[in-house]
Amino acid sequence: MKPRNKLTVAVIGGGASGLAAAVFAARTAKFSNKSVTINVYDGNSRVGKKILVTGNGRCNFTNECIAPENFHGDSLFAFDIYSRFTFSDAEEFFRSLGVYSKSDNAGRVYPMSFQATAILDALRQECKTLGINEICDTKISDIKRNTDGFTLNGNIYADRIILATGGKAAPVQGSDGSGFSLLRPFGIKCTPLLPALTPLICENFTKSLKGVRAQGKITLKSEGKVISDDTGEIQYTDYGLSGIPSMQVSRFAAEGLYEKKPVFAYVDSAPFFSAEQLKNELLNLTKNNPDMPLEMLLSGIMPKKLGMFLLSECSLNLNLKIGKLNMSVIEKIVAAVKNKKYKISSVKGFSDAQVTAGGIIASEINPRTMELKKIKGLHVCGEIVNVDGDCGGYNLQWAWSSAYVAGTSIIREN
After folding, report:
1. Structural Rg of the chain based on CA atoms
2. How far apart, in Å, are the Cα atoms of 226 and each of 114, 265, 273, 391?
3. pLDDT given for residue 55 in this prediction
4. What is the pLDDT, as a whole number, of residue 5?
5. According to the model, what pLDDT value does residue 1 have?
6. Where are the beta strands (DSSP E) in 246-306?
7. First CA to last CA across the chain, in angstroms?
8. Cα gap 48→119, rounded to integer Å
9. What's this model's pTM, rounded to 2 decimal places?
10. Nearest CA to 271 among 328, 339, 329?
11. In this predicted model, what pLDDT tens digit does every residue of 365-392 receive, in sequence order?
12. Within 13 Å of residue 88, how many CA atoms lie on the same side as its CB?
């Protein structure tokens, strides 16, 4: 039965966006002097499990340099929502909870303690202070629309709902795609769900490079066109390419492969040199150190194991003296270093992905309130929406921004 004279809000999902949305709703209710009960439901034994593993446990929770191109999917929609709760608002919000921040030279913002627990503990404490109820080990498997509200699991009443169940990435942390199942009966349109921020699996990849880490640039191409690129530390595995550059481009690889298109990764292992500069440097080495064995030619530029692999790809005898190299061989080596081609067979799946590409399309959502146009009283936020960000704090910023709009509007609209 519906409680009288008191609004009941059910937040489904106790991750970053769900906890933040609950806090913003409770703060708005308190400021507006409205009587509201807010219950956060989570299927795990405790809330915020995924927060604890973000940024390798350091929780890079926003970024000082955010532009529309840092978001993908419905990127313009995302940036519009972001503009109403920016990185500086996120920093101020957590500062109000006692969490001070520190940024690095790339604009990535962390708790000053560099511990993800600082973010989760602050959110949970604020929930406790505001009287928000955490109800764990309670998976919501059914939503029914009533004339005056909603019924969850057949016996839980709510006047309003904030759906913050996340996507499908990292299911061990609770993001298992269940939110999309809840919406299916209502006919809400979603894009295909694909793993993002995940390693690239390469066809016939050599195991000899496993464990190598090296600076490089990955350029993805499909049907002759560049579809994405990124530069940074590449981690070589026994199946393909990992590290931030591969993760940054992975959503585009997944999208291309989903569309049955061939996708190739071209790796530049010396991005700090142009091809002409590299050629001249190698020519100088051969001139000044003619007795140097070939296996050492690239060891001053990249890890020796990687250099030896690239040289072997040129079908060269590694015991050869570099003074014996002619111009055509040097140019062949430069091509291998600057443009090594790998065919992408797949990307690592949702178990290894940090975020989901795809979700509820923007046209289903009122951008002023994050309310679904087809389901009055049901607001959404976070990863369940067709928005995914680059690696570097952009996805958590989307969680805070969308949670702010959903949490504040769900109270102001009533």
Report:
1. 25
2. 36, 10, 20, 20
3. 86
4. 61
5. 44
6. 264-268
7. 19
8. 10
9. 0.94
10. 339
11. 999 999 999 999 999 999 999 999 999 9
12. 2
